[in-house]
Write a structure and sequence with these properties.
Strand content: 35-45%
GO biological process, one term: response to oxidative stress
Helix content: 25-40%
Oligomer: single chain
InterPro entries: KH_dom-like_a/b, OHR, OsmC/Ohr_fam, OsmC/Ohrsf
Family: Belongs to the OsmC/Ohr family.
Protein name: Organic hydroperoxide resistance protein
Largest sheet: 3 strands, mixed
Radius of gyration: 14 Å
Number of helices: 3
CATH class: Alpha Beta
Order of helices and strands: HEEHHE
Number of domains: 1
CATH topology: GMP Synthetase, Chain A, domain 3
CATH architecture: 2-Layer Sandwich
Structural class: alpha+beta
Length: about 80
């Protein structure tokens, strides 16, 4: 997120928070993982915060590796 914020010339709030929930699921005898990320960026407008979250998701090495392999839902939570 820091790299995306620097490119956008946005300061990341000191009280930011990311809550991750990961589920191990079973369907038709096969296991799979799914994740939910709830991101809080207090003090940023919803538009700027969403753009930052989207940019970070596109450039994050972990997101790149898991894209298409793990269902991920990223939600912006406003404080």
């Amino acid at each position: 997120m820091g790299l995306a914020a620097a490119k956008m010339k946005v300061s990341i709030p000191a009280d930011r928070a990311i809550d991750a929930e990961v589920d191990l699921c079973l369907t038709d005898g096969a296991y799979f993982i799914q994740a939910r990320l709830n991101v809080s960026l207090p003090g940023l407008s919803r538009e700027v915060a969403q753009a930052l979250v989207d940019a970070a998701h596109q450039t994050c090495p972990y997101s790149k590796v898991t894209r298409g392999n793990i269902h991920v839902v990223i939600s912006l939570v406003q404080a």
